[in-house]
Write a structure and sequence with these properties.
Low-confidence stretches: 1-24, 472-476, 485-493
Number of strands: 38
CATH architecture of the largest domain: Orthogonal Bundle
Shape: flat
Largest sheet: 5 strands, antiparallel
Number of helices: 8
Number of domains: 4
Distance between the termini: 110 Å
Helix content: 10-25%
Length: 522
């Protein structure tokens, strides 16, 4: 009887005590976290540190922010898209006509400055929407919180129950994915993301610490300085402690100065007690050689040169010129951690190809074909998109400047009857071209519109609407087409006509209208 009574008491305790009292969920989370790759563990801590600070400042629950970043970006390394790495978009936020920032063009893997340039580059493939692009993951987190603080998500700021927030996201149409709620909750619970929801001051009166960057990419020998902002009481006296998780890759001093040592990645932290700010630092090797033994660096080509330093076996270095008497001019990081330039014996150096990051570049022009009379001009609208930042200056050329010339701002001048091709070329050779047909005279034709029709300031759907031919007045009203698109070879099919006629307002108007809705009658 005593055994049964004891069992009954234990069962009763199990029913009334929370699971956390037995550390069941914590143990499960620890196992999930320990099974993550080192990079994913760094990602969790980095985004978690920013999400905690963001929760304090913008009232968006940190655990949900981190879970969304994990799911939407594939831990910042999505196998489906380069959106989180190139576009720095961690949350898959799309953009429409009200977005004034940069756009990620997934098809071409490039960044466009804005929607207008995106439309010019994509041309006929332009869908009217794209993916928001940012300068950094920090900007992506800030924009995510700004979105969730708009009227469409008014119930979310200030909520502290992660399950309720996950449900609210779907209720507010953040996504139509029926499994989204379950996926978010699983990520939060499996990876113990609620730890970042604690915005109570710690023993040092610190609520959160925010790093100046969430990720940095350095070349070997490179250096950068990070800063960290302490959020909380103004009388925090405990100094920040800076540390690197892998000092073989990069070190950091107590002023936040990072020095790259070898290829790989590490986590830089600035902490006070149990609060930390994090930044993932990636070090890339752009060196073109590797040493096969521990190798001396001397001040001249020859064994009689003074020793300046030493490279360790298998270290990546730079060979900066041709061999002289069996010695290469070299540069790299010496075993004492200091950069060194000098000469090393060529027999123990293996040349390797430099791996360059692919930078896609695409040029877009407002037209692929234009038709103008002698003496007329046309100003191109143009755009350059690239995976990584470049000089976007274009070089403009004409295949026949006697027919149509172009200046370096994209302004074309028509000189005589004929055809020329205008080409705009960006750095790296990417280009776009437009055929220019120069006609000899203007011919006016009577025409009528088959539907209500906008009059625009230029021959483009994105040009400003300056008037409107009202459908109600079309039956008894002709419009005049001043046809820049006829030449000695006949009618050139073009999307736009230059038109004039009486507009809806009763005023006389001129401009460009879509030729698909105009019938020439005489």
């Amino acid at each position: 009887m005593r055994i049964k009574k004891y069992i009954a008491i234990v069962i009763a305790l199990l029913l009334i005590l929370p699971a956390s009292a037995f550390n069941i969920n914590a143990d499960a989370s620890e196992e999930y976290i320990s099974n993550l790759s080192t990079y994913k563990q760094y990602f969790r801590r980095t985004i978690g540190s920013f999400a905690r600070a963001d929760m304090y400042e913008n009232r968006i629950l940190a655990s949900v922010t981190v879970a969304q970043a994990i799911l939407e970006s594939g831990w910042g390394q999505s196998s489906r898209t380069d959106l989180p790495e190139v576009g720095k978009n961690l949350f898959g936020i799309r953009t429409y006509s009200d977005w004034g920032g940069k756009i990620y063009d997934a098809e071409n893997n490039i960044i466009c400055s804005n929607l207008i340039e995106y439309g010019i580059i994509d041309g006929a493939d332009y869908s009217g929407w794209g993916w928001r692009a940012y300068d950094s993951w920090v900007d992506s987190i800030n924009d995510h919180s700004a979105l969730l603080n708009t009227s469409g998500y008014a119930i979310i700021p200030g909520m502290t129950d992660y399950k309720a927030v996950c449900n609210a996201l779907v209720e507010c149409n953040y996504t139509k994915d029926a499994n989204y709620i379950e996926s978010l909750i699983a990520a939060i619970e499996n990876y113990d993301l609620t730890v970042f929801d604690d915005i109570n001051p710690n023993e040092h009166k610190v609520i959160a610490i925010k790093m100046s960057d969430a990720e940095k990419v350095l070349d070997l020998d490179g250096s950068v300085t990070l800063t960290a902002e302490v959020l909380g009481s103004t009388d925090v006296t405990q100094p920040l402690t800076w540390a690197s998780a892998n000092e073989e890759v990069a070190t950091v001093d107590q002023n936040g100065i990072i020095t790259a040592k070898s290829e790989g990645y590490t986590l830089i932290t600035a902490s006070i007690g149990n609060r930390e700010a994090c930044c993932i630092v990636k070090v890339l090797s752009r060196y073109n050689a590797r040493v096969t033994v521990n190798l001396n660096v001397r001040d001249k080509a020859g064994t009689d040169g003074a020793k300046l330093g030493e490279f360790r076996k298998d270290q990546a270095i730079n060979v900066t010129g041709d061999a002289v008497d069996g010695w290469y001019p070299v540069s790299g990081v010496s075993t004492d951690g200091i950069g060194v330039t000098g000469w090393s014996f060529a027999e123990y150096i293996t040349l390797t190809p430099v791996i360059e990051t692919e930078n896609n570049i695409k040029v877009g022009l407002s037209r692929f074909e234009i038709n103008r009379d002698v003496g007329k001009t046309y100003q191109f609208r143009y755009a350059v998109g690239s995976t990584y930042p470049i000089d976007k200056t274009l070089t403009w050329t004409s295949s026949d400047p006697t027919v149509a010339s172009v200046d370096q701002g994209g302004l074309v001048t028509m000189h005589k009857y004929g055809t020329a091709t205008i080409t705009a070329t960006a750095v790296g050779g990417a280009s776009a071209s437009c055929v220019v047909n120069v006609t000899t005279e203007q011919v006016k034709y009577t025409a009528h519109a088959v539907t209500s029709l906008y009059i625009r300031s230029d021959d483009s759907a994105s040009a400003k609407a300056v008037g409107f031919f009202d459908k109600k007045s079309i039956t008894n009203q002709n419009i005049i087409v001043t046809d820049n698109y006829y030449n000695a070879e006949g009618l050139i099919d073009d999307e736009w006509y230059y038109v004039e006629g009486i507009m809806r307002t009763g005023e006389f108007g001129t401009g460009y209208s879509n030729s698909n809705y105009i019938v020439i009658t005489g």
